[in-house]
């Protein structure tokens, strides 16, 4: 199959490299010239484990190329739209301007029957609008618009793409089903189920999935608050409920609140879509509110660990990205935490294994350190915000002697309280009395 991928971000680049790896012929297009120039020199503009090798092998095989123009669209069987759909300022709805612009750019270039596939996360009805835009721009075009939401997770994106739990294809068009079946055929071998639905259903599946996962995280976060008060251990509660197959063990890790490029914006957009249709999703709205408040209250937790005497103190923050194995800083809990610490008059320094370049664009008035030990040196408290592997076995003895006061606030519960306390620290974590 000949595929054009529009957007070389976390989703577009991974999808393009994986499709080329399946054996398809892929042109990945981005209007960001610097990104394309980097890719053409085998430099990957994002951090995603093993993506460099996959891109290199795709390019060397001749099946993957990068460019800024859409001239390959005439030859394509399918054009995937994988551009950003960030929150629109003001009302939280998804900003569809990039998707609509891509549809307009594609329209005039179509030759022969072509699939237009939305891989971006788009609200219900976006496929209809993309169809309308293309028909309006090029009334002669022979095409079908398909919704094919992506479920990959940053940090495990390649594995997720190659071994998906399911592939959702939203279309009623028989020709479109056939082409999509051929594109994903290599995954039949992995027995990945393809779920064919209507386009609107496929669009809603993606938002429902993200809202459900965000709700699950928020639920266990609230249980963590209660566990702290009643003298229980949230990790044991999570295990105790997660072993029930109806509940499942995943997404039950209490922490500082969810962030990232998807859950916050997608829960906001779903709630806005529902209101547009006269439906109130109260559970999703509660999740949004609880999570926002939680992210902001984490600075109070740190202050509490210093007996609320934090003005002028130095706080060392370990981990800035919204989760490990990515450089993505979008809506990371570290941002709200650090803003709160600075508001309290604390001095903040931070270290992240790969996210510091992105973090520098988001965070000012803090000092960036090259490693966890330099970060901890002379600090009054050490806060673990992202559970990078590099932070899981720190030399506690060395850190204790280097710190001004031995206080650790572990917002990811990566240490056992008894180990840290016996190493001479005051230790606070989440939901463990
Ligand atoms: P991103 O911001 O990393 O990448 C988007 C890219 O699209 C950018 O490089 C931008 O320059 C490019 N672009 C925008 N308009 C363009 C145009 N007209 N022509 C060519 N290129 C254009 O975004 P992302 O994280 O890859 O997310 C893309 C979509 O996938 C979003 O809708 C997101 O919700 C969804 N999604 C993301 C993830 C994730 O983990 N990041 C997972 C599943 C779904």
UniProtKB/TrEMBL annotation:
Top-level class of the enzyme under EC nomenclature: oxidoreductase
Any GO molecular function: NAD binding
Entry-linked Pfam families: UDPG_MGDP_dh, UDPG_MGDP_dh_C, UDPG_MGDP_dh_N
Ligand binding (NAD(+)): 30, 35, 85, 121, 154, 265, 330
Domain UDP-glucose/GDP-mannose dehydrogenase C-terminal stretches: 316-417
GO biological process, one term: UDP-glucuronate biosynthetic process
Catalytic residue list: 262
Pathway(s) it belongs to: Nucleotide-sugar biosynthesis; UDP-alpha-D-glucuronate biosynthesis; UDP-alpha-D-glucuronate from UDP-alpha-D-glucose: step 1/1
Reactions it catalyzes: UDP-alpha-D-glucose + 2 NAD(+) + H2O = UDP-alpha-D-glucuronate + 2 NADH + 3 H(+)
Keyword NAD: yes
Transmembrane regions: none
Binding positions for substrate per the UniProt entry: 151-154, 206, 251-255, 259, 323
The entry's keywords: NAD, Oxidoreductase
EC identifiers of the protein: 1.1.1.22
Domain of life: Bacteria
Annotated PROSITE patterns: PROKAR_LIPOPROTEIN
NCBIfam families with a match to the protein in the record: NDP-sugDHase
Similarity remark: Belongs to the UDP-glucose/GDP-mannose dehydrogenase family.
Name of the protein in question: UDP-glucose 6-dehydrogenase
Organism in which the protein naturally occurs: Nitrobacter winogradskyi (strain ATCC 25391 / DSM 10237 / CIP 104748 / NCIMB 11846 / Nb-255)
